[in-house]
């Protein structure tokens, strides 16, 4: 039962990532693209944790922690570039 | 105990998949940039929170005991999601809205977005007057 739920969750997050790629490709503004990339990072974290549950290994927690940090910093850098024209003044 | 744990983890995983799907579908479906900001930053963080709680309970019930890495990831995501949403909203205001389009904030000062815009360096891309706010 848990394996079926796990695969359903994999399917949901896979479809969600495809939707994010669609938004990144077809959005009309830069802000939407940044937002879609941020959502894509969060969905990738969820996929990594699900993969860790599937293989019953805690190795992927460090990976997802690093991924969360890098995603946050890159989104802030994108927004700062949009606001100020450069990142580190 | 085992079947109890399986049911809880399964329900949490299904809820997580639902919230993740709804968050990304809202990003496609909603029609204004500010409402588009609403969908993924809330629903997807809830979805990832459910995945992390499911993972914690899975390792508690079926593996070598409870782990607390997930709580760190949850805390980090919950702290950073509002910051990111605020930054994206600010960038959207900066790029697409003129100061006269917004209502007065009701204080002594004006909108801080435009204060920053006045100090911005000269090579900053100016707001496009052909695209006023929606």
Structural class of chain B: mainly alpha
Detail the poorly predicted runs of chain A: none
Estimate the mean pLDDT confidence of chain A: 90
Largest sheet of chain A: none
Oligomer: heterodimer
Radius of gyration of chain B: 21 Å
| Largest interface by Cβ-Cβ < 8 Å | A-B, 54 and 60 residues
Please state the overall shape of chain A, judged from the principal axes of the Cα atoms: flat
Query: What is the strand tally of chain B?
Result: 0
Care to describe what's here?
- The complex is a heterodimer of chains A (89) and B (134).
- Chain A has 89 residues and is mainly α.
- Chain A has one domain.
- Chain A is built from three helices and no strands.
- Chain A has helices at 2-26, 30-55, 60-84.
- In chain A, helix 1 (2-26) packs antiparallel against helix 2 (30-55) and helix 2 packs antiparallel against helix 3.
- The mean pLDDT of chain A is 90.
- Chain B is mostly helical and 134 residues long.
- Chain B is built from four helices and no strands.
- Chain B has helices spanning 2-29, 33-62, 69-96, 112-119.
- In chain B, helix 1 (2-29) packs antiparallel against helix 2 and helix 2 runs antiparallel to helix 3.
- Chain B is elongated.
- Mean pLDDT of chain B is 80; it is low at 120-124.
Describe the structure concisely:
The complex is a heterodimer of chains A (89) and B (134). Chain A has 89 residues and is mainly alpha-helical.
Task: Name the descriptors.
A: 89 residues, mainly alpha, 85% helix, B: 134 residues, 4 helices
Any chance you could write out the topology, listing elements then pairs?
The complex is a heterodimer of chains A (89) and B (134).
Chain A: H1 2-26, H2 30-55, H3 60-84
Helix pairs in contact in A: 1-2, 2-3
Chain B: H1 2-29, H2 33-62, H3 69-96, H4 112-119
Helix pairs in contact in B: 1-2, 2-3
């Amino acid at each position: 039962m848990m394996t079926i739920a796990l695969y359903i969750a994999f399917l949901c997050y896979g479809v969600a990532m495809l939707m994010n790629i669609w938004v990144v490709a077809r959005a009309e503004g830069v802000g939407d693209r940044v937002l879609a990339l941020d959502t894509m990072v969060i969905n990738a974290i969820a996929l990594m944790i699900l993969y860790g549950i599937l293989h019953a290994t805690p190795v992927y927690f460090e990976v997802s922690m690093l991924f969360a940090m890098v995603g946050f910093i890159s989104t802030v850098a994108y927004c700062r570039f949009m606001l100020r024209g450069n990142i580190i003044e | 105990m085992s079947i109890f744990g399986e049911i809880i983890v399964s329900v949490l995983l299904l809820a997580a998949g639902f919230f993740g799907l709804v968050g990304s579908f809202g990003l496609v479906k909603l029609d204004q940039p500010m409402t588009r900001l609403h969908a993924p930053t809330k629903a997807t963080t809830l979805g990832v929170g459910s995945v992390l709680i499911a993972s914690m309970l899975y390792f508690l019930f079926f593996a070598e005991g409870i782990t607390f890495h997930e709580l760190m990831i949850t805390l980090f995501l919950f702290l950073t999601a509002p910051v990111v949403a605020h930054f994206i909203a600010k960038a959207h205001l900066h790029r697409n809205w003129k100061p006269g389009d917004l209502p007065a904030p009701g204080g002594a000062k004006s909108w801080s977005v435009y204060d920053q815009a006045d100090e911005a360096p000269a090579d900053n891309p100016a707001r496009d007057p052909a695209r006023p706010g929606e």
